[in-house]
Write a structure and sequence with these properties.
The chain is an alpha/beta fold. A four-stranded parallel beta sheet has the order 1-2-3-4, sandwiched between helices. The chain contains eight helices and six strands, in the order H-E-H-E-H-H-E-H-H-E-H-E-E-H. It is globular.
């Protein structure tokens, strides 16, 4: 993830408090989320990496094919991503912009932005989450989505951490790093912080291809690592809630609804779960998923995954609709 500049945070703090909204989900009387502020990885990055010198970006077709105007914004999907749906469900706005966008207007800061950067994680070897912030409104919703890249890439694919840790030790390290970051947010004034679990990483198409054997089954060691991290993350949030006055740290279980979607796709009208829409769907993501990719599907709505790592817009929407009310209730 990347740091916010002091001037952005200053204007956010001053102006966001003036904003009131009417949520689409049920909120307690006289309560509102005036803004959504997001930190995380490619799941919640709306384009902050577009102007960075990195291969972890997707501001080119066919990404964004089903977005408004068919424009590739830098979102790792065919359309909207979770922060867009969350902001919409909360009645804030239809799209959550990247803070680094050259076209960002002062008015955009009234209702929040995403600081997420693709490739980030809780592991400091995965680009650092946040360097510095100043003052942030306590009633805003903070969403933290990270950990997937740490397990899938830093540990299993690249393997650099395998030489230093076994899975129990590495997930301890991740959970402790997550708690440190959340304490930093709390110290800066955040009081409503939602933290997403890791998904069933072994069932991502890329991980099936790399570690699922000839039949490309879900890689169970990846899933077990995700579940172990989730247990430790939840425990850390319980501890933070017990020791952080006036704060609500809400654990957002992504693992179970996502796994149910993969195991029972027909319940939500999906047909394909073991490969993405882009290219062969088995290994392509980012630069490998481009207009040069052959066989990109015609109708992404039948697919749970857009590329070999990231869900489609419709899959995101289905999952968000299942979990958002329970998540919101956790803050009150």
């Amino acid at each position: 993830m990347v740091s916010s500049s002091s001037i952005i945070v200053f204007f956010l703090s001053v102006f966001i408090i003036l904003c009131t909204t009417e949520a689409l989900v049920k909120l307690p009387r006289n309560e509102t989320f005036p803004a959504v502020l997001v930190f995380g990885d490619s799941i919640v990055d709306p384009g902050n990496n577009n102007n960075l010198s990195t291969v972890v970006k997707c501001n080119f077709p066919p990404y964004g094919r089903d977005f408004v105007g068919g424009f590739p914004t830098g979102r790792f999907s065919n359309g909207k991503i979770p922060p867009d749906f969350i902001a919409e469900e909360l009645g804030i706005k239809n799209l959550l912009p990247p803070y680094s966008s050259p076209s960002l207007q002062l008015g955009d800061l009234l209702t929040g932005v995403s600081f997420a950067s693709s490739g980030s994680g809780f592991d400091p070897l995965t680009p650092k989450l946040v360097k510095r912030t100043n003052t942030i409104l306590s009633k805003s919703l903070f969403l933290v989505v990270a950990g997937s890249d740490d397990i899938a890439n830093s540990y299993f694919v690249i393997g650099v951490r395998k030489r230093q840790y076994d899975i129990p030790a590495y997930t301890d390290f991740m959970a402790t790093s997550a708690a440190s970051f959340l304490k930093e947010l709390y110290g800066l004034g955040a009081r409503r912080i939602g933290v997403a679990s890791a998904p069933p990483l072994g069932c991502l198409p890329s991980q099936r291809s790399l570690a699922g054997g000839k039949q490309r089954e879900c890689a169970e060691d990846h899933n077990e690592a995700a579940k172990l991290f989730n247990t430790k993350l939840s425990s850390q949030l319980d501890s933070l809630n017990a020791n952080s006055p006036q704060a609500k740290f809400v654990y957002i279980d992504i693992y179970k609804p996502f796994l149910d979607l993969i195991q029972n796709p027909q319940k939500s009208g999906f047909e394909v779960v073991d490969k993405g829409c882009c290219g062969t769907g088995r290994i392509e993501a980012a630069a490998l998923c481009s207009l040069l990719s052959s066989f990109t599907c015609e109708d992404a709505s039948n697919y749970v995954f857009w590329d070999s790592y990231h869900p489609t817009e419709r899959a995101y929407k289905v999952i968000i609709e299942k979990i958002i009310q329970k998540c919101v209730d956790g803050f009150f």
